[in-house]
Inverse folding.
């Protein structure tokens, strides 16, 4: 896991110093909000939780409180009234050699298998969703909703035809790129800058095939030029599964107001995230960065670390917060971005993609049990129950429905 994600996750499990006073809610407000959430269909468009499915000792049915490695599990989904969402097949970017592309291909397939194994092991708790209408039916059956997404198209570089297999196995949301450029698209954050000036020819072909199959395209992590290509190329709306407002914080991963309005005009949706580094500048000092690296190394490294080590990891991070404090985004900062997005494009074009288990979360919003605070804030703003329902799931499912309807009318098999 990239260090920037590590440092954010570690800070949350036992709390972290606030850079400003966080918004506060009364117990009555939270109870009212949770009651509404339990009635609504609530989906998060970017869950990195599949990264934990193969972690030693992790059990999706077991509660992993105060653990720097975990923010989502079945008990906490129940407490936070989260019905499910899009469970990501995330793959780290390699060096773009042939060997790296084969390793990425295999990693993606293994992660897909792990998600499907979770579904098979717990059919009474989780169910795969394939259409926009499946989610409400699954919720009515008392189960959690699992849509499958792919963050970073690198597993498809070695063999783009695998997209058809992924679709048959449940893939319904696809992003082309992650932190660095790949063979499909330019990243918003590659230090080398643009390579393709948007989508590559292979990227355009991949996106067109995804549209033919009815897979929704996710722009998060791609460059502004990729956005412009998508806005021109796609006959259907697209989404940003976990992004924020560039007008509030000028980070290359965030979207400017002009493109926000283009997105809305096309029928698309931006899902606001809780990744602190995209809400404000959280850059640590060199000493703090080194201390975080040393802590992770001492506990065995991120990828193979057993789940029980996450508690020790959190305690170590809490000690660093006392010894080498760093600036942190707060829940207030999150709501400033959320409010700006609502002001610019309105409640029919905004949703929620917190980036849980992938760096998302803030003091006061440390795991999925805190999600009713979002609903309480939306209620404070005076949004109707119908508008809140759209933000929690209706908007993203509308985009999916449009993508699937287009594919059905244009020859998808």
């Amino acid at each position: 896991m990239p260090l920037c994600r590590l440092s954010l996750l570690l800070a949350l499990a036992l709390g972290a110093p606030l850079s400003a006073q966080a918004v506060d809610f009364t117990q009555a407000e939270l109870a009212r909000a949770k009651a509404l959430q339990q009635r609504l269909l609530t989906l998060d468009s970017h869950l990195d939780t599949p990264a934990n499915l193969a972690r030693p000792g992790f059990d999706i049915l077991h509660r992993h409180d105060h653990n720097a490695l975990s923010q989502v599990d079945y008990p906490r989904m129940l407490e936070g009234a989260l019905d499910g969402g899009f469970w990501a097949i995330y793959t780290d970017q390699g060096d773009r050699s042939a060997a790296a592309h084969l390793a990425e291909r295999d990693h993606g397939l293994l992660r897909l298998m792990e998600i499907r194994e979770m579904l098979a092991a717990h059919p009474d708790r989780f169910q795969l969703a394939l259409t926009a209408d499946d989610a409400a039916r699954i919720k009515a059956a008392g189960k959690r909703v699992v849509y499958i997404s792919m963050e970073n198209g690198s597993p498809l570089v070695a063999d783009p035809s695998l997209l058809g297999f992924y679709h048959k196995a449940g893939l319904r949301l696809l992003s082309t790129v992650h932190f660095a450029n790949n063979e499909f698209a330019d990243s918003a954050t590659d230090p080398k800058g643009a390579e393709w000036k948007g989508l590559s020819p292979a990227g355009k072909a991949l996106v067109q095939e995804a549209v033919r199959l009815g897979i929704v395209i996710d722009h998060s992590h791609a460059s502004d030029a990729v956005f412009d290509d998508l806005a021109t190329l796609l006959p259907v709306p697209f989404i940003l599964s976990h992004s924020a407002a560039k007008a509030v914080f000028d980070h290359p991963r965030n979207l400017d107001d002009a493109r926000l309005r283009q997105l809305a005009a096309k029928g698309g949706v931006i899902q606001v995230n809780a990744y602190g580094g995209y809400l404000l500048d959280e850059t640590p000092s060199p000493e703090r960065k080194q201390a975080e690296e040393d802590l992770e190394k001492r506990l065995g490294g991120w990828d193979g670390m057993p789940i029980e080590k996450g508690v020790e990891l959190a305690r170590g991070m809490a000690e660093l917060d006392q010894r080498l404090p760093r600036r942190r985004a707060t829940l207030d900062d999150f709501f400033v971005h959320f409010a700006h997005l609502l002001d610019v494009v309105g409640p029919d074009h905004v949703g929620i993609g917190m980036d849980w288990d992938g760096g998302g979360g803030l003091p006061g919003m440390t795991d999925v049990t805190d999600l009713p605070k979002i609903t309480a804030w939306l209620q404070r703003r005076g949004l109707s129950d119908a508008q809140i329902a759209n933000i929690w799931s209706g908007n993203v499912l509308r985009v999916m429905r449009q993508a699937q309807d287009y594919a059905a009318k244009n020859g998808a098999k």
Observations:
- The chain has one domain: 3-409.
